[in-house]
From TrEMBL, chain A:
Any one Gene Ontology molecular-function term assigned to this protein's record: DNA binding
Gene Ontology biological-process annotations: protein refolding
Gene Ontology cellular-component annotations: cytoplasm
InterPro entries: DnaJ_C, DnaJ_domain, HSP40/DnaJ_pept-bd, J_dom_sf
Source organism of the structure: Denitromonas halophila
Highest taxon, organism lineage: Bacteria
Every J domain range: 5-69
The protein's name: J domain-containing protein
Biological classification of the source: Bacteria, Pseudomonadati, Pseudomonadota, Betaproteobacteria, Rhodocyclales
Keywords associated with the record: Chaperone, Cytoplasm, DNA-binding
One Pfam family here: DnaJ
Entry keyword DNA-binding: yes
UniProt key word Cytoplasm: yes
Automatic annotation (TrEMBL), chain B:
Protein name as annotated: MerR family transcriptional regulator
Domain of life: Bacteria
Alphabetized Pfam families for the sequence: MerR_2
Length: 314, 101
């Protein structure tokens, strides 16, 4: 097991005051905030920062850590002294047992985290494991039809010695029909293991839908731009719209204009209730690139009393 | 359970969470949530027949606010304001992703 230099993690000196430690933690908590940070390893860095702060912000833990770690460097091979378990009694505050379950082996060995030897004999802690979050990226077709996805996830697992390690687990997950962007699929009992016989947390899979060439999703509603020829818009027409579950014939009322929206109820992503299909109409002009096409435009110009800018004369 | 067994989950959107479930998932006391609801800091929570219920948006909000209050000693109103802004950012990011840009 490697020694963790918590002072190095927070970027403070060993004689830093409690206030300096708090300030350093806040600066890093802002830098690696999961909603804001653009750092690739922000989540792992935030866990390390939380772990360091959990120890250095607690006077009891800090004193014990200082006494133990004065001769160690970061990364050096480390074993806690045999009498460590009897020498100290730590309380938990600030971070939940679920959060502490995600801290390193080093932390759990020293401060009685999940599976640490300090809790093996006692068994008086019985706390549920934390939830684990992950994303699942789906095609729009999967929303319509449902799917089965094999996911490879880093999940905490308790080994034979009761220590928590991050292991890669392969899970086969059924994606129900009708899922949409942002929804969460909860897999009960597949999250972090509990402590002292407590139940495991849940695995929360957040659904992400890959961008589609033509269709956008808004909850269960589907939205797309529907190009129309001028005569389809002016005279009305029935046009075919291609959706992931087949073709749909949509009637365009006569006199349709660009910018108008048609709502086809119940033809979005399936569900209870199903979403709607929203069509943004866009009239597309044929190019006047042949004599015949030019002639048709000239005839319209001469014979139609059409002013597209009536307000411009006022 | 074998690793290759097919797991069938439940959709959080369609299964409401109780106040106690949200509190447990966020490692906070139920009273912390009740206090914040009473102060109007959880606009997403719904009360039906005297029972509070939450969707996943409420769960994410509770986690964010608890983290902001703990990490920065933020006042609950400030944590709620930050949560509002983060929710707006989630919404805009989702729209951006949907347009494929």
């Amino acid at each position: 097991m490697e020694f963790h230099d918590y002072y190095q993690t927070l970027g403070v000196s060993r004689d830093a005051s409690a206030d300096e430690i708090k300030k350093a933690f806040r600066r890093l908590a802002r830098k690696y905030h999961p909603d804001i940070s653009k750092e690739a390893d922000a989540e792992a860095r935030m866990k390390a920062v939380n772990e360091a702060y959990a120890v250095l912000s607690d006077p009891e833990k800090r004193a014990a850590y200082d006494r133990l770690g004065q001769n160690y460097q970061a990364g050096q091979d480390f074993r806690p002294p045999p009498d460590w378990g009897e020498a100290y009694e730590f309380s938990t505050h600030g971070f939940s047992p679920g959060e502490e379950a995600e801290f390193s082996d080093f932390f759990s060995q020293l401060f009685g985290g999940p599976g640490g030897f300090r809790r093996q004999g006692g068994g008086h802690f019985r706390t549920p494991g934390g939830d684990v979050r992950a994303e699942v990226l789906l095609d729009l077709d999967d929303s319509f039809n449902g799917a089965t996805r094999q996911l490879s996830l880093q999940l905490p697992q308790t080994d034979a010695q009761g220590r928590v390690r991050w292991v890669t687990r392969s899970l086969n997950v059924k994606i129900p029909q009708g899922v949409h962007e942002g929804q969460i699929i909860r897999l009960a009992g597949q999250g972090a293991p509990g402590m002292g016989g407590g139940p495991a947390g849940d695995l929360l899979l957040e659904v992400r839908i890959k961008p589609h060439a033509r269709l956008r999703t808004e909850g269960r509603d589907l939205r797309m731009t529907l190009p129309l020829a001028p005569w389809e818009a002016a005279l009305g027409a029935t046009v075919a719209v291609e959706l992931p579950n087949g073709h749909l014939k949509v009637r365009i009322p006569e006199g349709a204009q660009s910018g108008r929206q048609l709502r086809v109820r119940g033809k979005g992503i399936p569900g209870t209730p199903p979403g709607d299909l929203l069509l943004d109409l866009q009239v597309v002009l044929p190019p006047a690139d042949t004599p015949a096409a030019r002639q048709l435009y000239e005839t319209m110009a001469q014979e139609l009393a059409f002013d597209p800018r009536p307000s411009a004369k006022q | 359970m074998r690793e290759q067994d097919l797991l069938i989950g439940s959709l959080l959107e369609e299964t409401w969470m109780t106040l106690e479930q949200v509190a447990a998932a966020c490692a906070v006391e139920p009273d912390w949530l009740r206090r914040h609801i009473d102060e109007g800091l959880f606009p997403h929570a719904e009360c039906v027949a005297g029972v509070w219920r939450f969707t996943r948006v409420g769960l994410v909000r509770a986690r964010r606010m608890r983290q902001l209050e703990r990490d920065f000693d933020a006042a609950p109103e400030l944590a709620a304001l930050m949560a509002d802004l983060l929710e707006e950012m989630d919404h805009l990011r989702t729209r951006l992703r949907q347009t494929g840009t």
